[in-house]
Amino acid sequence: MLGSKRCRLIIGSGTLPTMLSRGMAIASDSGRGNCLACHQLPIPDVEAYGTIGPPLSGIGARLTEGQIRLRVVDTREINPMSIMPGFYRDPRLIHRPGKRYAGRTFLNAQQVEDVIAYLETLK
Which CA distances in Å does 113 have to 17, 46, 86, 100? Predict the structure, then answer.
């Protein structure tokens, strides 16, 4: 099991600017985080974004690091009816994953920490 989801998953590797850059790249990459599919993000030159989830502008001012982490790791811990994927959810709890994700999480721990570092800057 993942242990306490409120704890830092790993010590971030790389400098903070590197983590922020990677986090924004993951959040906007349709093959990884794909946050833009459901959320509006303040990313320059991005005009197409989803409206299913709340806008993420200001999330760093509204939520603590731990609250952001819990939502990225597995928001169903807060809202069991959420349609947001748990990006570091226990693979045994993922129903009918694509072959690419069978037995693994959608993002690795470092990628999750990079996304959290980026989201924390959105004040």
Answer: 13, 23, 14, 22
Q: Which domains does the chain have, with CATH numbers?
A: 16-120 (1.10.760.10)
User: At residue 6, does pLDDT exceed 60?
Assistant: no
Q: Say how far apart CA 123 and CA 117 lie, in whole Å.
A: 12
Q: What integer best gives the mean pLDDT of the chain?
A: 87
Q: pLDDT band at 13, cuts 50/70/90?
A: low
